[in-house]
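Human: Cast an eye over this sequence-structure pair and say how the chain folds.
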Amino acid sequence: MAGRNFTFFKKRGNKGYLFILPFFLVMISFQLYPILYTLKLSTTSPVNLFENKFVGIENYERLLTNEVFLKSIFNTWFIWLMNFIPQIVFALLLAVILYEWQIRGKDAFRTVFFLPNLVTAASIGVLFAVLLDWQHGSLNHILMALKFIIEPINWLSKVSIARGAVAFIQWWQWFGYTTIIVMAGLSSISGELYEAAFIDGASKTQAFFRVTLPLLRPIILYVVITSLIGGLQIFDIPRVLTNGRGAPDNAITTMVLYLYNQAFKNFNVGYASSVAYTLFFMILFFSILSFKLLSGKKQRGGSEL
């Protein structure tokens, strides 16, 4: 009887592989194979449209001496930091206000703040491209009507303004999402901890820094890593704002925009593949570093047990 039951479950288990087979076929075909093929391409250089030759790590060596690529790294990090730092600060303050204060219609505020995240980045890029257009843009018309400026300003022709505009757009799109995540973290903190802190004489500011922030560390870690992964891959907004040119002096040419131009404009897919793998390892390294720095050390007593 036992042997018969074992045979039955064995046959049943083998049939289960048929149900997970489609997932693995799709993953191997559209994820694993492209990843491995990209690695192979990163060691080649085009001879003609249909043939590549093996060049080893030559593409990676070119990256280290290419001024535009090095500038794209700086642009990517600058835009992400100028977006993320005010984003997390603003989200923390806004989340605490909406969660603790008795504000009428705060659910409506949550919805309004989250709305930009529901729109595609390309659509937002088109919106701000229209607003910042120096000939027919709404921003110039409003400032001229208010007598703040005399003639239209070509905003995207100025390096600092172009970078700041992309960082602002990223902040505007994502601060609502970050606020919602932080509010979810606040709702998981027990009120008894605050009561104990206030009984011990702590002020609200001290309770925020000694109770709220430490307990929000996993949430902040999640936000940092996901924002880092997304921020280093920014492409849509710089691409739409400047039609892929990256503004003057490659001011907003990000790593992915540089990759796109190399692959689909210059058709240098081998070199572009090396950019992709450099970006991958950069994201991997800084994600692990962020996790190590923000996850915190385990309590000695708990780790010894």
Q: What stands out?
A: The domain at 69-297 is CATH 1.10.3720.10 (MetI-like fold). The chain has a mean pLDDT of 86. Strands lie at 44-48, 51-54. The chain has 14 helices and two strands.
